[in-house]
Amino acid sequence: MSKLHFTTKHANAATVKHDWYVVDGTNQTVGRMCAKIASVLRGKNKAYYTPHVDCGDFIIVTNASKVVFSGNKGDDKEYLTFSGYPGGQKAETASHLLKRRPEAVIERAVKGMLPKNRLGRQMYKKLFVYAGAEHPHTAQQPKELKFEKIK
């Protein structure tokens, strides 16, 4: 009786194919949408996902100004920044930041869901967020990425 020997195929830079996707943020819940975006940026939607290789795809988010927060998060959630100086901490509510810089809301949410190392920083560079419906990446022929709405 012979022993069967199976080897696991690991993805590497030569075997990974990076696709381009467009996500429309209109009426999408911020946390749920960003969790799915982070998963695609990591490459977890692919059969050959390998944790130590950047297998993810490029994501373009349009209409970032039209995303919504669930519950009272628009008024209760605060984004903190600190300059490093005494008294240099500033707080801003989520609804105010969404009006002022809508891209920052999506970028901060997705960045927090990615690994905190050089691989995570490499994955984060594949995210492009735009407040309006227009984007300059039409030459890449991005496909639309649909999320099913959870009730």
Describe the structure.
The protein is an alpha/beta fold. The protein has a domain at 20-70 and 101-144: Ribosomal protein L13 (Ribosomal Protein L13p, Chain: A, Alpha-Beta Complex), CATH 3.90.1180. The protein has 5 helices and 6 strands; from the N terminus they run βαβαββαααββ. It has helices at residues 30-42, 73-76, 94-100, 102-113, 118-124; strands spanning 20-24, 58-62, 78-82, 89-93, 127-129, 143-144. The strands form 2 sheets. A 4-stranded parallel sheet has the order 5-2-1-6, covered by helices on one side. It has a two-stranded antiparallel sheet with strand order 3-4. The longest helix has 13 residues, at 30-42. It is globular, with a radius of gyration of 18 Å.
